[in-house]
Design a protein that fits this description.
The complex is a heterodimer. By secondary structure, chain A is an all-alpha fold. Chain A has two domains: about 40 residues, no CATH class; about 40 residues, no CATH class. In chain A, about 90% of the residues lie in helices and about 0% in strands. Chain A has four helices and no strands. In chain A, helix 3 packs antiparallel against helix 4. The radius of gyration of chain A is 27 Å and the shape is elongated. The mean pLDDT of chain A is about 85. In chain B, strand 16 and strand 17 form a beta hairpin. Chain B is globular. Chain B is of the alpha+beta class. Classes of the chains: A mainly alpha, B alpha+beta. At the A-B interface, helix 3 and helix 4 of A face helix 5, strand 13, helix 7 and helix 12 of B.
């Protein structure tokens, strides 16, 4: 009986905490910050993928002259 | 409506939402809505002259205020200050300027005839053709689309052109990569490009008078029943409203257009998009702006401020005297060592070092700052390369890091008033660049503003701020460097990047760090 009572009390306290507006606001703010952090990875990932795709091939072909030429062109085409 | 004008601006009886045009000697200079800009001053509603216009207000002008029907509401001959002659609101080349809805002075299309604008319309066609050849649905967007559907012309009070395209992709990462690729292809066609964000860039086109005109190229994509169109739209949308594309006439050319242009124009300008409004300024919803910011932006922090600071720098050279940090580097480094001046600003330290036998790279994200000395360096054959590096873009950092890593001989890096002027992303990439450049062994000479008494200073120019030396030291350690020396010095007028608000002297920390190799 007491075990059931304990479980019920624990559940009630958890529900109270879940429904507490202040607690909810804090959790939403944390979640939003985490989502922002993840979404900011989009640009970095795109930049990384672009560098790898554009420059990896000549390196893989072990053609250093071509790699340098491509690197120069890649930098030149970045604009400002 | 009772209304009058005087040397301070316009006095309204009762501000309302009507659009009013202000003309100087018969030429429209500015348009506004009283309800949006009037201020209550001493019992009257006043609209002060826009800040950017005030510098031009010297001399006399017949000032007219009229409504959109052309009815004159006030007309007065005014004399501003003690200037002689007529007020002349023109750029250094004599081209007429107008205040845009953001309060900036611009050269609007109505100051140009069709011949003058032909290079811009040619560029619109070229960009649309290139995008179409890549299998993308591309169309004039925003104001350019509006002008086409309103009367087949670029809007007179507009000053740049817009092109949009619908990406095949639906994830921001792929949309950004596609935009990078398009930029490369347009660059190969000889176009001059400046990137705004991961999904938008500007092509600069000179019209026949040499006026630089912006052609903005915006990525669009469908995302959960919405159209995302850089730089501002995130709106419920159906694919069929966009494709298959229809047509629009613009300046005598037949160009592709969204299938149902009303949908796109209403999303941007509201249902009354057919009625001209020179005061229109799109206010992006905060949540949408935030979403687009975290997806695509963060690579141009403070760039507009630096561009403004250097806006006239191309025409006048800096004082050709080195800063103390450059002297320190020269005294300590071997003769002929290669030097990378990151955040070189006007470029005077880079040139001074080059003229003392160093091979120098002067890099900065605001090219107007060093443009003057770059031209001189070419003429004089100095051993200095002044070029653009945007530390907030990872691609710039990698591409320059790879280049600098291949430079022969000892290397050093000069980093003056940069750590305290760039974003966190910029600092992170600076350490990355330093690791790539100096990782084999080399020293960095850094200088940044500090608050030695613990009291943060307020600087007259918000582009710089104080930094904690402990933070710099810990970031350097994480990048593989150790601090050899650090000293705090009071800065004189020449050494300071700007004055403090309260007139107290600014201080810098000069820190030398070493990568052991």
């Amino acid at each position: 009986m007491s075990e059931t009572q304990d479980r019920s009390d624990g559940l009630k306290s958890r529900l109270r905490r879940l429904a507490d507006p202040a607690d909810l606001r804090g959790r939403v703010a944390r979640l939003e910050a985490e989502v922002d952090e993840l979404q900011q990875l989009n640009l970095r990932l795109a930049e990384l993928t672009d560098v790898v795709q554009e420059l990896l091939l000549p390196l893989a072909r072990q053609d250093p002259d071509k790699a340098v030429e491509l690197l120069e062109r890649y930098r030149d085409e970045l604009g400002t | 409506m009772s209304l009058s004008v005087d040397e301070q601006g316009i006095v309204l009886g009762r501000p309302d939402d009507e659009i009013l045009d202000v003309l100087f000697d018969g030429r429209r200079i500015w348009s506004f809505r009283g309800a949006k800009v009037a201020e209550r001053v001493g019992g009257a509603w006043r609209v002060p002259w826009p800040l950017d216009l005030r510098g031009f207000l010297r001399g006399s002008a017949l000032v007219t205020v009229r409504d959109t029907s052309g009815a004159v509401l006030a007309e007065t001959e005014l004399r501003f200050g003690d200037g002689e002659g007529r007020v002349s609101v023109v750029d250094p080349k004599g081209l007429p300027l107008v205040i845009d809805p953001g309060g900036r002075l611009v050269t609007t299309f109505d100051a140009s005839d069709a011949d003058q604008l032909r290079p811009l319309v040619d560029a619109i066609e070229l960009v649309l053709a290139k995008l179409t050849s890549l299998g993308l649905d591309a169309f004039p967007a925003y104001g350019t689309l509006l002008g086409g559907f309103r009367d087949g012309k670029l809007i007179g009070h507009d000053n740049d052109a817009d092109v949009g395209y619908l990406s095949r992709h639906t994830h921001p990462v792929d949309v950004i990569r596609e935009s990078f690729r398009i930029q490369r292809l347009l660059h190969r066609d000889g176009l001059e490009i400046t990137r705004y964000s991961g999904g938008a860039f500007k092509v600069t086109v000179r019209d026949s008078e040499g006026v630089p005109r912006g052609l903005d190229v915006f990525a669009g994509f469908l995302y959960h029943d919405h159209l995302v169109l850089l730089g501002e739209l995130f709106t419920p949308f159906e694919e069929a409203w966009l494709r298959p594309l229809g047509n629009v006439e613009l300046e005598g050319r037949r160009l592709p257009a969204p299938a149902d242009p009303d949908r796109l124009l209403t999303a941007k300008y509201g249902p009354s998009w057919r009625v001209p409004d020179p005061t229109f300024k799109f206010e992006t919803d905060q949540r949408i702006r935030h979403r687009l910011d975290v997806w695509f932006r963060g690579t141009r922090t403070h760039r507009n401020g630096w561009d403004r600071r250097y806006s006239t720098s191309r025409h006048r050279g800096p004082i050709r005297k080195p800063h103390e940090l450059a002297r320190m580097l020269h005294r300590a480094e071997p003769a002929g060592a290669a030097v990378v001046d990151v955040g070189c600003g006007r470029g005077q330290d880079a040139v001074w070092l080059a003229n003392r036998g160093h091979r120098v790279f002067g890099l900065d994200f605001a090219p107007n700052g060093f443009a003057h000395l770059r031209d001189r360096a070419e003429e004089e054959g100095w051993s200095v390369e002044l070029a653009e590096l945007n530390l907030q873009e990872l691609r710039h950092t990698f591409a320059w890091g790879a280049r600098l890593a291949r430079v022969e001989g000892p290397r050093a890096m000069l980093v003056r008033q940069l750590l305290n002027a760039t974003s966190e992303r910029g600092r992170e990439n600076l350490w990355r660049l330093a690791g790539m450049t100096l990782g084999d062994g080399g020293r960095m000479y850094a200088e940044f503003l500090v608050a030695p008494d613990g009291r943060r200073r307020s600087y007259a120019d918000p582009l710089v701020w104080d930094l904690d030396p402990d933070l710099v030291e810990s970031e350097a350690a994480a990048a593989g460097a150790r601090v050899l020396s650090a000293e705090t010095v009071e800065l004189d007028e020449y050494e300071r990047p700007c004055r403090t608000e309260d007139g107290t002297p600014p201080y810098s920390c000069r820190m030398v760090m070493e990568w052991a190799g």
